[in-house]
UniProtKB/TrEMBL annotation:
Name of the protein in question: REXO5 exonuclease
Domain RRM: residue ranges: 471-545, 566-644
One CC-aspect GO term: nucleus
Alphabetical UniProt keywords: Exonuclease, Hydrolase, Nuclease, RNA-binding
Source organism superkingdom: Eukaryota
Source organism (scientific name): Agelaius phoeniceus (Red-winged blackbird)
Amino acid sequence: QVKSCHLSAALLGEDSEISQEQLYELLKYAALGKCHNAAQPSWCRIYHQSHLAGVVVVVLHGMSQLHFYRFYLQFRHLRRAFRHRFTLAPSANFPVSLYGEGTNLKPQNTPQGLTSTSSECITKSSDLQCDPIIQRYGEKKQGLTSYTLTLEEQKKNDYPIEGSPGCKGYISTECDQQRTDSSPLFGLDCEMCLTAKGNEVTRVSLVDARGQCLLNELVKPERTVVNYRTRFSGITRKMLLPVKTRLSDIQTRLKKMLPHDAVLVGHSLNSDLQALEMIHPSVIDTSLLFARSEGRRFKLKFLAKAVLGKEIQCEQKLGHDPTEDARAALELAQFFIEQGPTKVAELNLEMLLTAEKLAEVSQNKAVLQPQGCGFQEQLNEPPPLSKPCFLDCLQVTGQKPLLLGRQGSDSSGLCQSNLSTSNKQILQRALEDVPLSKFSIIQFSLGPEYLASHLHAGLPEKVRSKLTDMLTIYAGPFEENFCMKSVKKEFGRCGPIQSLTVVTETFQPYVCIQYEVLEAAQLAVECLNGAEVAGSCIKVQRPVTAAMLDCNVLIKELELDVENEGVIYVAGLKKSLTETDLQEEFSQLKDLEALFLPKDLQSGKHRNCCFLKFQKTQSALEALEAINGWTMKGSQLRSRNALAPGHLWRWIWQMNHSNEKQGKHIFYEKMEQLSDSEQDLRKKVKKLDQHIKKLYRSLQNNTLCVVLFPGVNSTHGSQPGLGLMGIKDDEGRSAC
């Protein structure tokens, strides 16, 4: 009997975010075992890997953790079948970051280096007409004004625009659009970290047309840093400690340094300007200048080597050097302007990219693979990991992976040979072919029409509004001169309070309380409705909005969520108690497996509540009865079944602190009647859940199944992904 994947207890709490590299570890070990230096993943453990019947990865293209909780009731199978759940760090190009990117290019000869000028690498003039660069700019050399983005192109590529709703408070450089072909070029690049606000600038670099550095400054973020992203930014906590410079200082300096006709150059420059909260009319974006088909973009590192012959973003360095990146982008733009589109197209960058990948694979094979093993999939993007391509390793072991995807949704080219026109077709193919493969990647999608719609764009606000309402309760009525301190103390025993305000619009005063965790709000409704507080018999209720009409149903389903089995919530703890103290106090409880003590992600102080995970559900129920009314260090405890432990608790905290909610009541007045398109979307999500259910039921026992909501990483901000996983057992659900 094969035991299922067992996740470490740390995933109950703050360490429940898994990186792309950690997910890679899991899939590689599950598919290859100890071959190719595959080792047990560091964050979970698979027992008896050799007995796994197969590995199935289901990728829900274009979807994030937001989608799972926005359509929680519709994803009935997913929340009931998979016991293990984790937040997935978003990737700009998923699943390329795990598997590599496919391509149909099949060069007859592989150049030995990117700068090769052999005849095989030069595109014939008859073929130039099909090159995206020629199609966009023509063949003739032009001045720099022909390559600056138009207002429409800036809007399309999420550049900050004067007067746009999302750019309120942004600072204009006050440069005009009277640029000429002799206007000065300036290279700009920023490094960002993740804070409670989102992406904030930590370093800014500006270089002039000669490549001389005019500005290279560290910047202190306004909010507390959640993730320094040191691997990419090179920024550490120690570096920022003595820094006094703020974003407003940088904005002022940039305004003074840039002449009225300045043209800014950068690679995906929209991200830098959004982070700087600045508006500039004249820009050249090298990620768009070196055009590719189907909206794809070359990476700056590749272009620097292929076009300029320069190595940047070297792995030996800690993080990217913004001055180096700004200078590289500037020189790329200068090369393009001086040489013209035809010369650039003749470089045949697509061929060079393929050659680079094949050369990398060849080097890996020399060390890791037996002689004579062929590589049948030609990959089009270098993986971000310094490891052999995952699909290549599978091919070497004779396990040809099954790749199924939907036409129009697979931007990575991963499933080029197996494209279908609908999720239903993908399901039918999967039901037939998955049993024949040891490793399968099945990609479903809601379709490009949804990803481009306003429903997709407004999803974060909808989820944030719903969560806020679920965390909020109204209590009252109270007497005119009631004691607010008594109210705060009584309701604080249910859990950590985010805010507490008095409602004065009513005849008698009421109190609006917003909690930090769902369990606290539910506990207040259950324990204090009808109770006497501050000398008044009060009613406790949640806000009445259209979106909250299904709140009770949602609470019930959260309690039944397979991830919450054996997990209880305990409130009323004294903040002076440490985790060690709590371990000792609760040690008498039977089958206690783990304790998670939530912390404020800004101050680091723990809250007055905790989660307890038990090995058996019955033990959790017994503990629930024992703890209710239990007095610990003079404080009476309250307890209930968990609703949102682990990754969801941390995510709710970040959602609440990322942005101040605006126009909540107006929003819900507009949402009282669901549009036909949103009703249709719910049906699509429910159908998608049913497709996954059918696929899951068809799997052999002891098959590892991983369902991935990849997340979103764009200029609008990052939305984390979500992973659900388990090994199917005899009862058709994931085993413990």
